[in-house]
Amino acid sequence: MISVQGLTAKYGDRVVLHELDFHVGKSELVGLLGPNGSGKTTLLLCLSKVVPLDSGEATVSGQELSAYSARELALVEASVPQRQEISFPFKCIEVVLMGRYPHQREFGSDSDEDLTKAMEAMRLTDTLDLAQRRISEISGGEAQRVIIARALAQETELLLLDEATANLDVAHKMQMFDLFSEKNNQGATFLCAMHDLNLAALYCQRLIFLKNGRINIDGPTMETFTEENLSEIYETEVRIIPHPDTGVPQAMFVPGAERQAHSA
Amino acid sequence: MKLEEIRGRLTASRRVFVLGLLLLTMVSFLSVLGAAGIGRLHFSWKTVIESIGEGLGLVQSGTVERTPLLVVFDIRLSRVVLSFLVGSALGVAGAVFQGVLRNPLADPFTIGVASGAAFGAALAFALGLGGASYLGLGTIPLLALVGALGALALVVILGRVQGRLRRDTMVLAGIVVATFLSALIALIKALDEEAVSAIVFWVMGSFQGRGWIHVAFSLPYLLLGLYLVVKCARELDILTMGEVQARQLGVEVEQVRRRLLVGGSLLTAAAVSVSGVIGFVGLVVPHLVRMTMGAAHQRLMVLSGLLGGLALLWSDVVARTLLPGGEELPVGVVTALVGGPFFCLLLKRRRGGVILD
């Protein structure tokens, strides 16, 4: 689905991503982890052609990224951004319908099919009740789910999520990832930048760890989610215990006072 | 909420829009007729309607006397139509600039177009070209148009950073260009005292002495501008989500934004070149429509156009009839006097529709 070779990206003279090589297969659900400023968001922006590649190649769905027009690319991949920039009082249903834009012809208006698909996406993200509310008047977490619905309405085989669930409550976080997991089982591919390590371990089959713009570790969750790796990447002490129900590794963090007592 | 219910609500809101559209169109027609009947010289409504009919060639010539024909058709109706067109252009341009710049304080003049036009006009006055004519039209609208488009070009060039047009640098470039041009206008005023009053009056905005020739002059730019922006209405909706998201949703951001800016500037230039700088219509009208009808730009543009036209048409009627002695007020004074307090009222009464976040 995604194939990247020697991908380098710069902001001015500052190199943000150094010659990344990786491949994401169809129907994978991959977590993109790493500390602040490690380049996760930039990588996702490169893959959606917002940030230009300085050098290297990136292929999405079998076609070189540079060969896509904006509309063609929007038919293949959908993005959920980290920050919301919504400042106009659109109704939530109108926002979700924007996800149908790449499917519409010039001068086209929303067809019945568009409306049906938008509402289905809203039902899945539990936002149908917000359909007629203005997006400027609902909470940040609700708006985030509306944006997720917009990405689903885009009906793409690849979804790039940048901290898509960061400001959702626990129940909605789980609900959204259950949904992603279900879409993944139906064949959709996900690349999710995340800070919530335990959520990543629960849902992602594979993890890519970025640090200082380079890929440090890339492999199956069960092999890479270790005390040693996490402590090194995040530069803080981490303990791993198995999830009581599923046995998946979960990270526990050690407060500073405890660490000092330990070393003393 | 049930699917059917949402579908029903959408249909209902479309009905409200169509109803509003019909109502405003009807009121606009009646207003044009009505305003042509209002003035210092009084004529019966029958005479007014017959004069317009004869002027348009619908009634056999010679039906009405020369005086009502001249006053109602040539002087008043042309001015009423022009004020409506200018108001429409400003209303639509305001909606476009607020959307493209994602700034609730933006209006058609934010990126320096007005200052460019004013500079062009000031230059015409200072060079003593005010009286010269070209195809029966003063040189002032021509130079104002050139000034407006020149200022836009300058702002776009200055606003580009690393080959990309950026919203924030463009606003800054607009301020710089406007300030610089204002200084040049002040310089012209200082050097040429005879031109001062003409420049001041022009800058305040007025329709005094305008006629059909001005309608014919600005109409092509206005239509071209309208075509460009209405075509991109849906893209403008998506553009308000921010450049990044717009691109990810499949919008060719650079291309669409260039079209919208050129279209909005053509609308503004078409207005400014024949009327001078008229404030508040482009700021207040789109706000009012957005609060009542929502943010979708296709509807916003259409309704802002009609409402802007109506607002300016009646402002001009007030401007030419308010003073008992027969002198005219600059119409910009009327729109600012009415628009300012009205805008404050809007802001106070409802915060939800205000697009500050």
CATH topology of chain B: ABC transporter involved in vitamin B12 uptake, BtuC
Count helical runs of chain A.
Answer: 10
Question: Largest sheet of chain B, if any?
Answer: 2 strands, antiparallel
CATH architecture call of chain B: Orthogonal Bundle
Secondary-structure class of chain B: mainly alpha
The percent range for strand residues of chain B is: under 5%
Name its key features.
heterodimer, A: 264 residues, alpha/beta, 6-stranded mixed sheet, 10 helices, 27% strand, globular, B: 357 residues, mainly alpha, ABC transporter involved in vitamin B12 uptake, BtuC, two-stranded antiparallel sheet, two-stranded antiparallel ribbon, 14 helices, 73% helix, 2% strand, disordered C terminus
Blueprint of the fold:
The complex is a heterodimer of chains A (264) and B (357).
Chain A: E1 2-11, E2 14-24, E3 29-33, H1 40-47, E4 55-60, E5 63-64, H2 70-76, E6 77-80, H3 92-97, H4 112-124, H5 140-153, E7 158-162, H6 170-185, E8 189-193, H7 197-203, E9 206-211, E10 214-220, H8 221-224, H9 227-234, E11 238-242, E12 249-253, H10 256-263
Parallel strand pairs in A: 3-8, 3-9, 6-7, 7-8
Antiparallel strand pairs in A: 1-2, 1-4, 4-5, 9-10, 11-12
Helix pairs in contact in A: 4-5
Chain B: H1 3-36, H2 45-55, H3 66-100, H4 113-126, E1 133-134, E2 137-138, H5 139-158, E3 160-161, E4 164-165, H6 167-191, H7 196-204, H8 212-231, H9 233-239, H10 243-248, H11 253-275, H12 281-293, H13 297-321, H14 331-349
Helix pairs in contact in B: 1-3, 1-13, 2-3, 3-8, 3-11, 3-12, 3-13, 4-5, 4-6, 4-7, 4-11, 5-6, 5-11, 8-11, 12-13, 13-14
